[in-house]
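Q: Structure tokens for this one, please.
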Amino acid sequence: MVQRIENAIRIKQSTNFYEIEAILRELPSNIFLKDAECRYVFATHYWHHLKMDEGDPNWDIRGKTDLEIRKDLDNAMHAYESDKEILRTGKGTEYMIEINTDGVQEFLELIKRPVFDEDGNATGIIALANDVTEAELAKRELEKHARTDELTGLANHRAFDEALQELPGRCDLPISIISVDCDYLKQINDTYGHLVGDEYIRMAATAFRAALPHRAQAFRTGGDEFVALVPQTTRERAEEAVADMRSRCGLFKLRDHSVSISCGLSIIESPDENPFDAIARADRSMYEDKASRRRG
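A: Here is the predicted structure, written as tokens:
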């Protein structure tokens, strides 16, 4: 099939070919054909992520490989290696790529199938590229909302559970775990109502997040409870972050009440350590801090 199309183009007996190509261009998908050397035979659409010679009105994709025409070399190599594997095995493939070119983020779904000659040899590739950017961004936004606490904007308990499952075996040790609980929230709620209590929680969350390093993961795990996972952080650095949290909380006042938090921490130093034990230690440390602050 590939050879027949190439022959038709080469000897100018291509009226039917160009008619078919024109019809296919009416579809939003990019349909393209490659030969046994992974060179394009035709493509129904040229997208902006290609290195086209805009000064040449006769520029054509035919005869070129992805390595020659893609601006994103990583995606170009991925496409080229994928094509080689299809031709080697005779099996098609499907995958999605992310493209960030010219300040535009796009997601393309690639569906590739081998083309066989009369003897059953893979002699080319027929493929379909669909722009799934809108659907993928919507999916990612939904996933983000599913893992984000609406009140504070921190990651939620679901995200925290997922992060805990990923802790064993991590190599960015030591990982500091900081457990935080708002002080006097029940008193605030009973005196001023839950709307004011929610604002108290938001203020505490703002101070909590602002005091953490950029690489830290910050979660709201309960009504007035927060947890941070801070990779590559010693106890000394974690204690500095806790002190900064307390200082920042003191800058917030609500109905003559300064925002106050109790804090505890623990350190994961071994990839074999049970993360749930480390969380329990941080929680015990936080409750001890709360008890001592009440006594004081």
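A few notes: Residues 150-295 form a domain with the Alpha-Beta Plaits fold (CATH 3.30.70.270). The two ends are 85 Å apart (CA to CA).
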